[in-house]
Amino acid sequence: MPRNATPKGTSKSSRTSPRASSKGSSHDALRILADDHKKVLDMFDEFKELKNDPDEEAKQQLVEATCAELTIHTQVEEEIFYPAARDVIDEMDLLDEAEVEHAAARQLITELAAMEPDDDLYDARFTVLGEYVRHHIKEEEKELFPKLKKADIDLDEIGDEIEQRKMELREELGVSPEESEPEDDEDALANSRSRKNLH
Prior knowledge:
The chain is mainly α. Helices cover about 75% and strands about 0% of the residues. The protein has one domain (about 25-199): Four Helix Bundle (Hemerythrin (Met), subunit A) (Up-down Bundle), CATH 1.20.120. It has eight helices and no strands. Helix 2 runs antiparallel to helix 5 and helix 4 runs antiparallel to helix 5.
């Protein structure tokens, strides 16, 4: 989709309103994206614990799940969030850099998909992916999100579009909603252990 194109069923005027949407709503696009950020960062942290684990199947499952989450997240940002942001802020460099960072992440995800956990550089590629993602998240949350909070934009409507598109992408990729629900740290650790015990 071209950078300035508007996704189906939306228009610039439908995304902006005389005043921005209520801050902190559960449908707020910024909250939805921040929750995605937290989830993938937790997954990268979990990988650090599994890095030297002999159970390579558990490691591979975590890498595949993380890459699926990142694929869905980057796609909704590129299709819905970034075009909406381009309509209301003047920081094109920030948005251009974010799209380049997505391209770099996609390249590493593609390389990881073609590898096995015991391949040379498997762990290194996933670790570097995590470093890219951490940098990207920091820039988005510290620079882009504050600008959008002040902008004339309906974050709830964009959030609804993002949630709908994420559901479609999960179906296309075969990622079940249960797998994608955020877990607290103790639940995530327990589930990781139970996954390891199954194999």
